Amino acid sequence: MKKINANHMPLYREAGFNLQNSKRTKEAFAAELDHAHEPEDYIYSRYRNPTTVAVEKQIMALEDCKWALLVETGMAAIDVAVSVFQKGKDTRPSLYFHEIYGGTNSFIDTVLIKRRNLDVHRFYATDGRYDFVELERMLAEIKPEFLYFEAVSNPMLIVADVKRIMALAKQYEAKIIVDNTFGTPLLWKPLMDGADLVIHSATKYLSGHGNITAGVICGNDEELMKEAIEYRKWAGHFLSPDDAYRLGTQLKSFELRFQKHCDNAMALATYLEKHPQIEEVLYPGLESHPTRKEAVALFGDKGFGGMLTFDIKGDSDTDKREKCNRFIAALEDTIPLVPTLGEVDTILLPVEPVWGAKYPLPGVIRLSVGIESIEKLKALIGDALGKM
Ligand SMILES: *Cc1c(COP(=O)(O)O)cnc(C)c1O
After folding, report:
1. Per its record, what are the GO molecular function terms (predicted)?
2. Pick from 138, 229, 304, 375: most CB atoms within 10 A?
3. Closest residue (by CA) to atom 12 of ligand 1?
4. For position 325, what pLDDT does the model report?
């Protein structure tokens, strides 16, 4: 085929690749046992695909790391990250922060414990704070293979003192896995600070338009990469080249988008905090936020993320619930109720119907702040608050 004078990377949709003859086939399959990130010859797309590898390189540049592996969802990325440490009967215990994505907690319960019968432990926050004496006690007692946490919790946006957590984990020889979906590499690069693996739901800010589900596992250690490639291949986790291609395009505007998410969220948080109908605003950039100190220490002046949570004023739970419903109804055509985050358009989620027993908070709404004009956002939200 004629070489095309195109400027953008091609999209390779092949399931299997042309290996031409027996010699090359034998060599390709022998080389495959090395689990290289970028093989000499591609064999089959579930093993590796050139379009997917090209986008992995874009993410490696963002996270400043030696390898990245794309998979079909954030959950698949979590499965790969934790499974590389599983060794049958020799699997050691693991320790997870409880203030993490709800889906991850469900994965722990329904897959790791119920189906794989693993020895999993949870570290709970007390009153929105992490008790480091308790964390150290657990690390010493459990001696986990790894510690798993998120720098920014959801929906309360507790920012962890990550340097202290990581120093403790290292002291007790636990590996470190970080879900960096909320922070993104723009606010923090955990691998540079000594994390062993980082995962992202690329469904969120990395793709940023609510039109792709994807996940990625990032690291520097070559052995972990080989284990991860092996697990990804045989457990059948894989991002299709079409989705990888679109992710690659959308990644090009990631830094621009995320900066605007942060700026808008900060401006909106400041506006809402002064609003007479608002009881409380939780945003790590606000002076009033319980973990503002940790946020400044970790993010410096880079921003505080695109998520903000606020509590609508009310006389009783019933009153709050009604006001919350009226607020959501007033925004029906402009700021929809969508259970995801990190899109260019602002979306909202009421906390009580989603988190229920964990956060039974009738007036609390989580906003995933988009990149619209801030004046437009303030006007929309101000109007909706007026209509309550
Ligand atoms: C959404 C999310 C996930 C799961 O990602 P999916 O792409 O939905 O599978 C994991 N962690 C965090 C923090 C998330 O927000």
Report:
1. transferase activity
2. 304
3. 101
4. 96
Domain limits for position 222: 22-251
Tell whether pTM > 0.85: yes
28 & 84 share domain: yes
Look at residue 117 in the predicted model and tell me its pLDDT: 97
**Ligand 1, CB cutoff 6 Å, lining residues:** 73-75, 101, 103-104, 150, 179, 181-182, 201, 203-204, 213, 215
**Maximal C-alpha separation, the chain:** 78
Looking at residue 119, what DSSP letter applies? -
Looking at residue 2, what is its pLDDT?
85
Specify the residue with its C-alpha closest to ligand 1, atom 4: 74
Q: What is the DSSP letter of 340?
A: -
Structure tokens at 124: 């709970």
Query: What average pLDDT is seen over the chain?
Result: 97
Q: Residue 226 Cα, ligand 1 centroid: separation in angstroms? A: 24
Tell me how far apart the alpha carbons of residues 342 and 204 are, in angstroms, rounded to a whole number.
Answer: 4
Q: From the CB of residue 41, how many other CB atoms can be counted at a distance below 10 Å? A: 16
- 202 CA closest ligand 1 atom index: 7
In this structure, which amino acid lies at residue 3? K
Based on the domain organization, do 298 and 186 belong to the same domain?
Answer: no
CATH label of the domain that carries residue 228: 3.40.640.10
Q: Report the C-alpha gap between 135 and 146 in whole angstroms.
A: 13
Which residues lie closer than 8 Å to 338 by C-beta, 6 or more apart?
210, 347, 348, 349
Q: Within this chain, do residues 49 and 138 fall inside the same structural domain, yes or no?
A: yes
Hey, whose CA ends up nearest to atom 1 of ligand 1?
Answer: 201
For residue 388, the model assigns a pLDDT of: 84
